[in-house]
Amino acid sequence: MASNRHTTPALWNWRYLILRRVVQIGVLLLFYGTLHWGWSLFGLPLLSGNLSASEVLGQVTLADPFATLQILLTGHVLQSEVLFGAALVLGVFLILGGRVWCSWVCPVNLVTDFAGVLHRRTWRKNLFGIPRHLRYTVLALALLLSVLIGLPAFEWVSPIGAMHREIIFGLGLGWTALVGLFLFDWLVVKQGWCGHLCPLGAFYSLVGRHTAQIRVKFDQSSCSGCGDCQAICPEPQVLNLKRLAHDGQVLSGECTNCARCIPICPEKSLAFGWRLK
Length: 277
Description:
two-stranded antiparallel sheet; about 55% helix; mainly alpha; three-stranded antiparallel beta sheet
C-alpha cells in the first residue's frame, strides 16, 4: 500500500500540536494579561485567579474538580459558586474526555513534551521502570492525606500550580521543582511525571472514561501495523492494535487525545471521530 507520509504538507502534520500550544499558551496569556495588563471585555476582567479556581469575566466561576474534591475531604464547606464551577468543568471533561486537560490545557505538558523529545533524541533509555498504574496509588494517597492533615495535599506540592504561579506572579523557588521534573522526564523515566505519577492525570483518566464523545477512531483495513503511532504516543498502551481492531476506536480513559498518532500514521488509519459505543 502506498504511503501518504511524503505527500501531506508538513504544516498540516503539525496542526494538532500547533493547536495544543495555542490553547496552552493562550490560557496562560489570558491569566497574565488580565492581571498585569488589565485585559477586560465590557469592563469585566477576562480571566482572573488560577488553574484551581478562576473567574471568567468576573461572573462565571470555574474550579478544578480534583482540587475541589480534596478541599471537601478536609471538611471545609465551599460556596455554592465554587461547587457549581467544579461541576461545570467536570461536565465538560466528562464529554470531551478527562485527559484532554493533560494535553490541551495543563502548562506542565509544555515541559514534559520537551523533555520527551530530548529523551527520544539523546538518551533513549529509562534508568528504572515505574508502573503506569502507580499514578492511581498517588491519587488515592493525595485524597487520603487531604482527609488526615486537613489540607488539600496535592495542591501544596503540585508542579502545575507552581508553574502557573511562577509565570503569572513572578520568579520564585517553584522553578526548581519544574527543573527537577524536566530532568526526571529527560534522564530518568520517559514521560515519568505525566505518564506514571501525576495524580491529577489519574483523576482525569477516570473522568469521561465511559462518557467521552470525542475519540480516536481506527480503520483496521488500512493499518499495516508499522507501530509508528505507538512509538510517538505518550500512553502507548492505549494503542493496542488487537483492542483497537475489536473496538474500532481508542476507548481507554488514559488516552489524552493529544493526536500525536493521527498525522504520524502513514496509512491515515487514525482520525478523530465521535464515540461509536
